[in-house]
Design a protein that fits this description.
The chain is an alpha/beta fold. The protein has helices spanning about 15-30, 45-50, 75-80, 90-95, 100-110, 125-130, 135-145, 170-190, 210, 230-250, and strands at about 5-10, 35-40, 55, 85, 115-120, 155-160, 195-200, 220. It binds phosphoenolpyruvate.
């Protein structure tokens, strides 16, 4: 059964080629790889393309070709049969000083090249403390998606920056409210109904059951835990919750 909930694994700059063989063996044996989008460190992408049906790139450049040493373009990614690109991850925004305008250029070039965009947005700890979460989400959605007309190939990842790699998460209610807010904004400004919104930030085998049942949640983006054995349990939990939801919506309601 294909899942309607997305499970995205962001390996970041982890693992070596030796680790990857083991990893591939384990996850292929334990979970239906069709349901998982793996975003490996770029040089390892070909290993995953051979085995996993859905592969994403962790970052792209905002030009299709040229003298940009070390960069990878959306066109190059697509030519390798990569289908997804993470854009605007907070580590790119923080360490590489990516601006909303650059992220917007990346989003638009990905869409032009038929790459599905996983756009990461979210507030800092301070912004949360100052109750600015909604303001930040709205501004990022407006600036990162400016000029975009087609939304079928966009997934929004709500990733509170303070929750990434910190073993802390918002409350389930807070995640639910942010997801609803993002969907409302997408409807208000872009007239898009039901854009997929996934949650990322310290998802683990301990909290995934609770996270998976948040209303309107369309999946998870897993960073640190995606390179560990617990990723198998995380994926299995998401798939199980999804299957139960699909079965319960198929049961005809009796009056
Ligand atoms: C991420 O890097 O997008 C992420 C969600 O990381 P972690 O799961 O480690 O918090």
């Amino acid at each position: 059964m294909t899942s309607s909930k997305l499970i995205v694994a962001n390996h970041k700059m982890n693992m070596t080629s030796m680790d990857i063989n083991q990893y591939l063996k384990k996850i292929k044996k334990e979970i239906n790889v069709e349901n998982v989008i793996i975003c490996p460190t770029s040089i390892y992408i070909p290993y995953f393309l051979k085995h996993i049906f859905k592969v994403g790139i962790q970052n792209v450049f905002y030009e299709n070709k040229g003298a940009y040493t070390g960069e990878i373009s959306p066109r190059q990614a697509k030519s390798m049969e990569i289908d997804y690109a993470i854009v605007g991850h907070s580590e790119r925004r923080n360490y590489f000083l990516e601006t909303n305008q650059e992220i917007n250029k990346k989003v638009r070039l990905c869409l032009k090249n038929n790459l599905e965009v996983i756009l990461c947005i979210g507030e800092t700890k301070e912004e949360k403390r100052n109750r600015k979460t909604e303001q930040v989400l709205e501004q990022e959605l407006l600036e990162n998606l400016e000029g975009v007309k087609e939304f079928e190939n966009i997934i929004i990842a709500y990733e509170p920056i303070w929750a990434i790699g910190s073993k802390k998460t918002p409350t389930m209610k807070e995640i639910e409210l942010s997801i609803r807010f993002i969907k409302q904004i997408m409807k208000k400004y872009y007239h898009v109904d039901n854009i997929p919104v996934i949650y990322g930030g310290s998802v683990s085998e301990e909290n995934v059951q609770e996270i998976a049942t948040i209303p309107k949640l369309d999946g998870v983006l897993v960073g640190g835990a995606s390179i560990k054995e617990e990723f198998i349990n995380i994926a299995k939990t998401i798939l199980k919750v999804d299957k139960n939801e699909q079965n319960s919506t198929n049961i005809p309601k009796t009056r």
